[in-house]
Amino acid sequence: MSNLPKWLIKKTPKQRNINKIQELLGDTLLCTVCQSALCPNIGECFSKNTLTFMILGNVCSRNCTFCAVSSGRPLTLDRKEPQNIAKAAKKLGLKYVVITSVTRDDLPDGGAGHFSACIAEIRKQLPEAKVEVLIPDLQGNTKDLKTILDAKPDVLNHNVETISRLYRAVRPQADFKRSLKLLKAAKELKKDIYTKSGFMVGLGEEECEVIELLSYLRWAEVDIVTLGQYLPPSKSHLPVREYVNPEIFSQYKAKAEKMGFLQVEAGPFVRSSYQAHFTWQKARS
User: Fold this and answer.
1) How far apart are CA 108 and CA 225, in angstroms?
2) All structural domains of the chain with their residue ranges
3) Per-residue DSSP letter, 152
4) Cα distances (Å, whole numbers) of residue 248 to 32, 196, 207, 241, 252
C-alpha cells in the first residue's frame, strides 16, 4: 500500500468534518458503513453532510475477505434503531437517505423486517426524503425481498462485489448466481423500482470477465452500476492484485453505457453509495 499510484493518493480527511457527523450521531448509538468499512471517501462525504447508515448491528455473520466490517456473533437487534435512524436523518436534514446493513444469516428473515421498519419510519418522519437501501442477499429468499420492496424504497441496491470466478476467494459464503437472481427478482416484483449493483476491480479479474459481469447485470435488468478500485483495509485482508488505471475505468464506463444501463459510475474511488443521490438523479434524467 506504500507504493500507491498517484491517482490513488487522496488528501487526509479533515477530522472536523468527521467529528461534525459523529457529534450529531453520538446520542443515537448509530453505525455508519463509512466508518465501519473504512471508506476512503469519508472526509469528503461527511463534509457534505452525506453518509450511509448501517443497521442490524456492526458485526456480520459472514467473513468476506475484502471487507473491514467485523465478523463474528451478531448483536441483538436494537428495536429502537428505525426511530433513531429517522431521527438522525431529520437532524442532519437529509433529503436522500441511504441504509445498508451487515449480513444477518442468523435471523429468520435476514433482517428484511428491520429494513422495512427503517424505511417506514423515515417515510413517517421525513415524508419528502428519498430512500436507497443496500441489502444483503437474504440467502435468495424472495419473500424477504418482497418485505423490503413493499416498504417502497426508491432504489434497491445489492452488490455482486466481484466476478463469479473469484467468489470463493472474495465472498466464500455468497453465491454469484443467487445475487443475480435476487436483482432480477426485484424487477419482477416491482417493475418501477430502480435497481443498482456494484463491484470492485483489481482483484485479479480479466477485462473480458468484467464485460461478462456487466452483461449479466443487464440480464438482471439492473439500472445503475458502480465500479471502483479494491483497496485492502489492512494487511490481513485479501491483497490487491492490480491498481487499475483511470483510463480503464473510463473504458468500462463507456462499454457499460452502450449496454443500456441508465447510469454508470466508474473510477478508482467510486463506492456503491458514493454520491448516491446524484447518481439516482442522473439515472432518472
Assistant:
1) 29
2) 6-284
3) -
4) 30, 21, 9, 15, 6
* Per-residue pLDDT reduced to its tens digit, 62-89: 999 988 888 898 888 999 999 999 998 9
Note the CATH architecture for domain 6-284: Alpha-Beta Barrel (3.20)
| Sequential DSSP letters for 231-262 | --SSTTSPPP-----HHHHHHHHHHHHHHT-S
DSSP 259-274: HT-SEEEESTT--TTT
User: Which DSSP category does 14 fall into?
Assistant: P
The whole-angstrom separation of Cα 277 and Cα 218 is 22
pLDDT for 71: 87
Q: What is the pTM of this model?
A: 0.90
pLDDT tens for residues 226-274?
999 999 988 889 999 999 999 999 999 999 999 999 999 999 999 888 8
Rounded Cα distance between 115 and 81, Å, is: 10
Contact 13, 46 (CB under 8 A): yes
**Cell numbers given for 23:** 457529534
Q: Which residue has the cell 436523518?
A: 89
Task: Give the 3-state secondary structure of residue 44.
Answer: helix
